[in-house]
Design a protein that fits this description.
CATH topology of the largest domain: FAD/NAD(P)-binding domain
Radius of gyration: 22 Å
CATH architecture of the largest domain: 3-Layer(bba) Sandwich
Oligomer: single chain
Mean pLDDT: 96
Largest sheet: 7 strands, mixed
Structural class: alpha/beta
Helix content: 25-40%
Number of domains: 2
CATH class of the largest domain: Alpha Beta
Strand content: 15-25%
Low-confidence stretches: none
Length: 374
Amino acid sequence: MADVIVLGAGAAGLAVAAQLKARGVDCVVLERGTGVATSWRGRYDRLRLHTIRGLSGLPGLAIPREYGRWVKRDDLVRYLEAYAQRFAITVRTGTTVERIKPAADRWSLQLGDGSEQSAHTLIVATGYLHTPVVPQWPGRETWTGTLLHSAEYRNAEPFRGRNVLVVGPGNSGAEIATDLAEGGAASVSLAIRTPPHIVRRETAGWPAQMNGVLLGRLPERAFNTMAAAMARLEMPDLRPYGIDRPAEGLKTRLRTRRYVPLQDVGIVADVLAGRVRPVAAVQGLTATSVLLADGTSIQPDVIVAATGYGTGLPALFEDPSLFDETGVPRIHGGAAARPGLFFVGYDVTLGGMLRQAALESRRVARAVHRDSRS
């Protein structure tokens, strides 16, 4: 029997656990993986944070300076391990949760081993990028080539000399396309349904993240206009190469679709040089071909679906009204969704995911602390 349970030993879960301990509230963190930062450990090898080190640390412990401005995946994992040790956070690894339901004034968790655990307060921090989603393209069952989600991609080595189609021009898709182009793939195509907003990761040392932090509170219309003007100044016109300019403003897209811009860490140069070829959206598959929205088709050997994730949360709870149509909690980030139930780490902002997790961890810890004293 625990007073407070935190689900997920990623950045958000560890941050809120540390903030609770700082306020004298004990908790236990349940983690499905073998250690903290499970989701980060499984990402592709060349991944670096798209936010600067100084704005990505969690409360109470800065990311070491020697990790550089743009922190590598493995260094971030080391940092999160050190964070859990620094604050002596109790993490129970290898613990999966099958079902969550209210029980009187507590929350009851059915675990994968058949046991149950309950707590007065439950804080869910299992992550926005939890469950890989691959579209059910027509004809997918007939496809004879290789199909994998970007969550399964590690590096370009297995794809040397092969024709690869990457689906989805988000940050992961674009970076994987660049990795493949540099790593010896015979050809790399990038399927685009909605033209991305592309920004430089930094300009003259000024990181794109700071624009989001400082300008993010501007009215939507003003922000959209400013972002479009900056894009025209910073980026070459990619329309002749198959990437249209976005029709929808950046802040509008953030509000309606939780979209963040694509940071250029090589994809623009690759498109200009012909190393990555933009193509239309995927409409369907045959045994050997991919049918595109413009009526053409291509014959890749491999499809890498950088097509996003689901939260996996609706399957855990009996109450569907907790979540919107995408599976994101309707109330999260500080306020209780139900008495004793909090969701942290599900807000997408232009200021960066880790910075937002740090902010939310303080809000949730304050709310839980107040509740524990009442």
